[in-house]
Structures are given as structure tokens and as C-alpha cells.
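Can't attach files on this board, so I'm pasting raw text. These are the components:
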Amino acid sequence: MELIIDGLRKAIEMILTGDREILEITWLTLRVCFMAILISSLIGLPLGMLLGLTRFKGRKVILVFINIGMGLPPVVAGLWITMLLWRSGPLGHLQLLYSPTAIVMAQVLVSLPIVTGLTSSAFQQINDKMLLQIKALGATKIQTIAILLKQTKIAIFAAIMAGFGRVIAEVGAAMMVGGNIQGDTRILTTSIVMEVSKGNFDVALAISFILLTVALLITAALTLLQQRRRVS
Amino acid sequence: MLKNRFFATLFVFMLLFLAACGNTESDQAGEKEKKTEPKEEPTELILATTTSTQDSGLLDVLLPIFEEEDNVKVKTIAVGTGQALEMGTKGEADVLLVHAPKSEEELVTSGDAVNRKRVMYNDFILVGPKDNPANVSGEDINAAFKTISEVKANFVTRGDDSGTHKKELGIWTAVNIQPAGDTYISTGQGMGASLQIANEKNGYILTDRATWLAQEKNLTNLQIVVEGGKDLMNIYHVMQVNPEKHDRVNSSDAEKFVEFMIDSETQDVIESFGKEDYGQSLFFKYTE
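---
Top answer:
C-alpha cells for the assembled complex are below.
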């Protein structure tokens, strides 16, 4: 109990005194997670839309793989990306291993199936009659998509939040492909693991509170956007 | 007008993300330029090393000196010695700082590593529960291992192919015992985590002194039981990954790093490290 209070006190202290290292680590965590979820959304939303609205051969197979991907263990993603990026691997010449970019790649790999899968479920829920009606009213393709996006807004935000939750909580893959390098690829989750193995439980707890606060603020912001009523 | 509100919101959100990402990169670039104004962009050197050098804090003291002197950015990958050596044989690292002399020699023989130099030593110690169920003490590590095995006291092993794990297996081989069973707990984790498990499970464990001193405050159930024997020396070597065998290896900085580690000023830094916090050196100079 005392440890928790100590940790909390330390977290507040770190934030108030503007501990440079912890600020940098937090900032990097945010950058990496935003980048990953942005890429996942840019690819996953249209892809999910396509899979939800259209019917073509092989679609079900793709959906099966996406659904498996939703449960892809991050360490597996980490291992694959590591082998891909090794100097002796196929992308070795890019020298990306142990860089923030490598972490983003691993995080996209674990969050993309979630965003895609949840988006496609949302679009599959849309009533066929509504689609017909939209068509009947003479909407253009872009107008149709805009209306459908509005209809699925809540589900799309849920997909993004689920994806974001996955990437900000990620540690196994980030450790493997990032290497937890000080001032370079050390993010909040990997520093917690490191501080624990150093035996600095108070520091680890402090960082955990910072991580939770960050996750809370972002999820709250997204939830507010999701729940906002249309004013008209 | 408000029809596309959701669209607009989403768009703004995405732009914000982009802006946030874009900004940092330019900020960082700006910062870097400022820091190294007269110099060129620092070169990158990948150092694969054991967890003990990082967890003890030694590298936090040494690396900034090296980075400043030679305009190099060192990327430290702290893993078990086994994995560090494997990174060497694959050419995934440029320079290694490890402590498993026998396995290191294999790397030199196979031509994967060159320019191997002795750097420092400290010692291994056996720690165990305060009530000492196997009643072991003194300097003789072989006798202690035998007794622990005979009385079936808990023994925690890292089991991760690290330098410490290799050392421990060497001792078991020396006393002709194949450790097994419920009392032989293999954690598969680093030294710090394994010590904590030993603390919870009332087990004996072989550890390096540096990690023990750094963590002692959290390990209230444990004490040192065997130490000081000749067999317990823990020797660290630094070596370069052979650039002739592996392309893409940064050999010029790796060579500088080897030179740096055996430099007499660096050696003084190594030996004085930890004196203030622990009242004793965590590592001792030991060049050839």
C-alpha cells in the first residue's frame, strides 16, 4: 500500500518537475502510438468498409484471417518484424531495427486487424433497405459513403479506440523490435518492464500511473467525440 | 451545413495526429542540429550486452563519455549473454560486451568475433534464504551446490543461456549433478527478475555481485551465503563483430569502442563506479 502511494507521489513529482527523460519517453510513446493508429485507421477503415459492403469471392477467407489477426499475440508480431528487419533479413538494408519506425510497424501489425475487423462488422450491420433508399434518393457514391459513415460513427470510434488500446498497452513487440534504447526507442511500457527488472518498483509504479493517465485522457477525448450528439 | 460534421471531426482529428507526428520530427531534427552543430550527424553503433551492465547503471556512466568523444550514438541492446553472442554470429550487432569466456572463445574460433579484449571483472555469489535451510556457507561453491541438491532445497536458475546461467551449469557439471525436479526453478528471465523470484520462493540463486548490490534493498528474504572462492570470478570481455564475415557492420566505431573500454581513464571510471552508492566497486579493472 505504501508503495502505491509512493509511486503516485513520485509520478506527480516527475510530471510537476518536468523530469526531462520521462517527458521524452511519454512524448515518444504518444508519437509512436498515434502514428500506428493513424496508419491502421487510414488502411483499416476503407478496407473494413469494403469488406462490409461488398460481396466477392474469397471475402470470407479474408475475414477469417482478419479475425485471427485480431488476436495476434504481440510477441509473434514482434518476432516477425524482427526477422524481417534483421541486417541479414529481406529489409535489412533499410536499417530500421531498433528504431521507433520498427515499433510503429509492429503496432500496425497488431492494430490493423482490429480496426479492419470491427469496421467491417459495423458495415455489415447496415440495413439493406437503407442502402436501397439512399440509392433511390439519387445519392452519389461520395454522398452514400458520407451517410454510411455517419450511421456507423459510434462503431468506427469504437474500432479506433480498441486499436489504440492495443498499441498503447503493447510491450512485448516494442521490446523486441525497439530494444528499449535510452533516448531512442524507450517507451512507457518498456521502461516499466526495465525498472521492474532493476528492482525500482517505485519508479515503475510512477511510470505506470503516467501511462494510465495518458491512456485515460486520450480514450476520454475519443469517447466524447464518439458520444457527441448531432446539433441541428 | 452540419451534415458533414462527423466527417469534419474525423478529418480534423486525423490532421491533428499528422501535425503532432510531423512536428516532433522536425523539432527533433532541429534539436539534433543544435547539439552537434559543428559536427556531422553521429554514426550509429549497436552494442549487444548483458543485462548486468545495464541494470547496474554502469553503461549510463560510460556511454555518454564515449558518445561525446567519438560522435557516435550507441544503441544498447541489453539481453542475456547467450542472445548477445547470437546477435554477434548473425552480424546483428557491431560490438559485444559479455561475460561467458568459453562461449566467447567459440565465437572467436568461428571467426564471427575479432579483437576480443578483457575489460573488467567482478564476482559471482551464491545468495539464499536467511534461514539457510541447506546450511551452506564459506567459499566452496562446489560443495554448496552438492549440499543444496542433496537436501532438495529450492534453487532458482535463470535458464536463459546468459553468462550467469552458463556459469551455474558449469558448476553443476563440475560436481556431476544434473539439476532437475520441482526444486529446480527455471525462470527464463533476467537477473533482477530471477532474484525476486528466489526471494519469494525461498530459493538459492547464483548471481553477479553488481546486480545483487543494486537490488539488495528489495530482497529482504535473501542473504549472501557463499562468496570469495577462486572459481567465482566473473570476467567481462569486449569484442568486435567481424566485418569481413558480416557486411553492414560498423567496424570503425566498434574498434573505437574496444579501445575506449580498455583505455586507462575508462578503467578508472569503471572501478570507481558504485563506490558512492554501495561503498564498494561493482566492477574492477582487468585489462590484459
